[in-house]
Amino acid sequence: MADVTEFSDGIVRLERDDDGVATIRLNNPDKRNALSVAMTDGIEAALDDIEGGDTRCVVVEGAGPAFCAGGDISSMLERQDSDAPVDHAVRHVIQDIGRCVKRLYECEFPTVARVDGAAFGAGANLAIACDVTALHEDAQIGFGFREVGLAVDSGTSYLLPKLVGENVAKELVYTEELLSAERAEELGVVNHAVPDDQFDAKFSMLVDRIASGPTVALRTSKRLIRSEFATLGEAIEHEAGAQAAVLESEDHTEGVDAFTDKRQPEFEGR
Length: 270
Known about the structure:
Helix content: 40-55%
Order of helices and strands: EEEHEEHHEEHEEHHEHEHHHH
Mean pLDDT: 89
Radius of gyration: 19 Å
Number of strands: 11
Strand order of the largest sheet: 1-2-3-4-6-8-11
Strand content: 15-25%
């Protein structure tokens, strides 16, 4: 049975299972899980709760018909109808939404986005900030800032070009194309576009495969891949230093023993 913790009055739920999978659920379907201050605070609180623990894989998902509709339009309307200075809105984008996306991107554990509904704008960034993104065949993803008269924010200019290249990223932003699951997979925006009748099973298999792996080694690999070394030599040098620590892990010992015994390893995440 999963252990459940709620944050921001239930707008964000954190579920932990016995296999080390921690699921962060955006739980405000009436607002299409928009990234309000309460939502971003809740996500960060959940990440605070996860990090430093025995987690082996983090899943991010949205309740209801949308994964995340992006920024909270109602708060934009409130700003327009008030005398609040522009820097208040900018501060929310940078300090709240942007920081939330950055925290997820930098999470120490492997992260997987389960996108079975719309992911727009900053919500799309939340999805691609994860290490692996699986998109339901009926879901759409788009980097929609154009239609509300805004430039990109919340990490789009960093995350999107890394996945699709600069020219494709610019076209997606300029046109605000809503990508089908098939098109998103084709461009490399997401890892998997999964048919409806296979989505739950394939997603569970993906998460189980990651969560059952050698957690210390996977966390180290994630950190190395994200380091963006300037040269191959620099990468090899840092890999060697990191590998020295992984060689001391219990999972490495188990892996070698399992290979010698010609059996499947049973990693414990230590």
